[in-house]
């Protein structure tokens, strides 16, 4: 069993080899591999469960009552005629530097203050209520945590069991169901990460429209997008319910795809998965985050700022750009080995070039690297950049 929803076809040679425990590997190596898989599964479940709880139950720690992130802006302190300090930023967007806190009395004063032309957006930013400031972003992260959590539950233990035993030890009806669930979770996770990058780009290009949509109906747009992601994942993976099943190879029952002798159909399916779930998402994420990084770095500072503020702004830019690069690089690194393995298996007949034991070990390593992405995602969004997390959509 393998991700994304594919079955290692080297299992049809399992009758020629003994189970993994009987290979000429040391017991220590077997224990090490087993430990790595168990640790990965535990980290994935714990990390995504924690992320899900935080995103849904404690949004104030990451999103509530925070200003939107639309880029790295400069902060200019201005004093009105009533000596009220306010913070304004380029293009009317909120600053990454923490805004000046003002009291209730100062807020009332600001309401009645005639600000110079060009500073009315500052007045609206401080005075106008915005109860849906950044809540919707949490639901995207919660959806990502659910898909990664279920991926760890379905993909890691079942796949590892078949790799070790060399046969399908579970009920027959579970074979297509589990493989289908694996592909659903992989697709949902990939599409959610891609949606996050697209919405970050929208926040940079058209922040006013994003604010208007959020204010008019805060959650309908978010839930509609999430529903579309899961609908595509659920319907696009149905093919696994049709082609996957338990088949007997000289008395050994294995869970694998069956294409009725038409191997070119399997090759086409592999290429489609590679393009739709890897090339296109990686290209979109790389392009959007690259453009966002370019806009962040290019954006200039209006007015004259003290050196310390400018230095802080530059440091924040570099931190966010590094995080955006890290997201794309981790996605590409984690999933590339598995797709290379599938392509080699279909187009270069890998199972005929190497013995089944070696093929199973190679696949096990590729699968573990892919699954490690399921616990890297919550670490990225929870720990790496508060500025990214507090954004609104």
From TrEMBL:
SUPFAM superfamilies: Family A G protein-coupled receptor-like
PROSITE patterns the record matches: G_PROTEIN_RECEP_F1_2
Keywords for the protein's UniProt record, in alphabetical order: G-protein coupled receptor, Membrane, Receptor, Transducer, Transmembrane, Transmembrane helix
GO terms of molecular function: G protein-coupled receptor activity
Pfam family, one: 7tm_1
Localization, UniProt: Membrane
Domain of life: Eukaryota
Listed InterPro entries: GPCR_Rhodpsn (IPR000276), GPCR_Rhodpsn_7TM (IPR017452)
Transmembrane segments: 27-57, 139-168, 180-201, 222-243, 268-292, 320-342, 362-384
Location, primary (coarse class): membrane
Span of domain G-protein coupled receptors family 1 profile: 119-381
Gene Ontology cellular-component annotations: plasma membrane
UniProt membrane topology term: Multi-pass membrane protein
Protein name stated in the entry: Neuropeptide FF receptor 2
